[in-house]
Write a structure and sequence with these properties.
2 strands, about 5% strand, flat
Length: about 170
């Protein structure tokens, strides 16, 4: 989509000092379109997914509202929804300012630096957040780390097999 905007002439690239470039939009409609396409649509789809998950849990619930016991499956589904909401809340808070501000042609470097740092923090924290929300991810990361450590640091010379050699008496 962004390539089409360059080809049509809705955006232009300027090269300021220090080998970085800035994208400037020709009108506000392009900025609104980019904000909708890059921010509002993914957020709406995430909210729709959360709603569909909650509705699925509610429809598949076999217990009446007055009963106090909850099945293990329902507890698991509810915990997944809570994890999903926590992850996307943190993701939205740290990622939203960067997407919104990057669509505006701002000349204030301090604002851009702050939202860029927030975006980097979000990218760096994603694996930690996912691992904290679900133990299975943490276990897989731990197994992967052990595998990498064993692959890199284990002495391979001791693992070689000695094959008998046959000598031809002729």
């Amino acid at each position: 989509i962004l390539i089409v905007e360059f080809l049509v002439g809705w955006t232009r690239i300027e090269d300021p000092i220090r080998d970085s470039c800035e994208v400037f939009y020709t009108n506000i409609y392009v900025q609104i379109f980019n904000t909708i396409f890059a921010y509002a649509l993914p957020m709406f789809l995430n909210m729709l997914m959360i709603y569909a998950s909650l509705r699925h849990i509610h429809l598949t619930s076999v217990l009446q509202r007055t009963q106090h016991c909850v099945s293990a499956r329902e507890k698991y589904h509810r915990s997944l929804i809570i994890q999903f909401i926590c992850f996307y809340f943190i993701w939205g808070v740290l990622w939203s300012p960067f997407v919104i501000v990057s669509q505006m042609s701002l000349h204030q470097q301090n604002v851009m630096n702050i939202v860029t740092i927030l975006s980097f923090v979000e990218v760096a924290c994603d694996p930690i957040i996912v691992a904290a929300l679900d133990v299975r991810f943490w276990d897989q990361w731990r197994k992967f780390g052990v595998h990498v450590k064993n692959t890199i640091f284990v002495d391979r010379r001791n693992r070689r097999r000695i094959h008998p050699t046959t000598v031809n008496p002729n």
